[in-house]
Amino acid sequence: MNIKSLLTGAAVITIIYIIVFFVFIKGCDKKEKIAEETAVEETTPQQQEQPVEETAQPQETAPSDPLYGVEPYSDEFFTYTTKNIPADVQRAITASNVKAGIAVNLDSREVCWALNPNTAYPMASVTKMMTALVAVRKMLCSNGAITLESPIKVTRTASLIGGRQVWLDPKETFTFDEILKCVLVHSANDCAYLLGEFMGNGDINSFIHDMNKQAQELGCKHFHFINSHGLTDKVNKDENSGSPAELAYLASVLLNIPQIMKWTGVRTEYLRENDEAFKARNKGQATMLSTSNSLLGVVPGVNGMKTGFTDNAGFCIVITCVRNDKHTCVVLMGCNNRKSRDALGKALLNWLYAN
């Protein structure tokens, strides 16, 4: 074998090695490419996934129900303490011959004075506190179906309710707020009946059922309602009743309902002020509404809440007051007369704020 043949053979082997090398390199490139493509396929869904656009969540707002989050009443709701009663307060207690009552700091829930606080007594027109609560709560929870401006047509039945009234006429129509104003400012029995009748969808008994049910839901065991105004039933002599402690609790609930509180502290208002025909028949005068709570505007801080009187109930009052951000309530039931009742209420309030 000559040198030329050797060189030729070496060249062939070299070429073969080169070819094998390129084939190997190409195969590796292909494998790497496949591996890259696989990796891309595995990661692409995550990489290409569009970020989810965050939807703005609405701010949590207080529900329309005014009783949302309200703590129910219980025997432990108020704390009873023993305190020495000042001489002037004791004289007022004796003079009034009060049958039951309570004087409480609503912020601390401390009771400074009480007489039969957990015994039910007739409460006359103090009833209208619950009437207002049930009616306004139904209105606020109606999702706009009923508003303060909703028209309420006077019914003949409502116009026949006696006692303190505004002389409703079946030809008239008033707004929900006007009727509520008459109930809370003037303690109008005809308007209390009409409001209950309207909110009971024409069935006053349905509304009275709701008043008793509302009392139970609030944990109050001593409330008993047979009507929405507080008059004594002429047939069976029955009447609405409640305990001083539960009335003080109810007052604390109403203090947080502006639709009610805007009227409980008003001394004088008017109805039919835009009824020119009515005013023409009454010497140009609208119907004047005047409160029976004579402590309003007289005792500093008094902003409500309700008075009542029947022969059985005597003179009753629920007084709410705020001075220097301190909230108090005095409930008096079965007093001799209005003057002694109010004198006791004033004395108890001043004592509450002196301590």
Secondary-structure map:
Elements: H1 3-48, E1 79-80, H2 87-96, E2 100-105, E3 110-115, E4 121-122, H3 128-140, E5 151-153, H4 156-159, E6 173-175, H5 176-185, H6 189-199, H7 204-217, E7 241-242, H8 244-254, H9 258-264, E8 268-271, H10 276-281, E9 287-290, E10 302-310, E11 314-323, E12 326-335, H11 338-354
Parallel strand pairs: 1-3
Antiparallel strand pairs: 2-3, 2-12, 4-7, 5-6, 8-9, 10-11, 11-12
Helix pairs in contact: 2-11, 3-6, 5-6, 5-9, 6-7
Spatial strand arrangement across the major sheet: 1-3-2-12-11-10
Largest sheet: 6 strands, mixed
What structural category do the secondary elements indicate?
Answer: alpha+beta
Helical stretch tally: 11
Beta strand count = 12
CATH top level of the largest domain is Alpha Beta
Strand content: 15-25%
Unreliable stretches covering 5 or more consecutive residues: 1-7, 16-61
N-C termini distance: 132 Å
CATH fold-level assignment of the largest domain: Beta-lactamase
Q: Which radius of gyration do the C-alpha atoms yield? A: 39 Å
Average pLDDT, all residues: 87
Total number of domains? 2
Q: What is the element string, with H for helices and E for strands?
A: HEHEEEHEHEHHHEHHEHEEEEH
Shape: globular
- CATH superfamily of the largest domain, please? DD-peptidase/beta-lactamase superfamily
Helix content: 40-55%
CATH architecture classification name of the largest domain? 3-Layer(aba) Sandwich
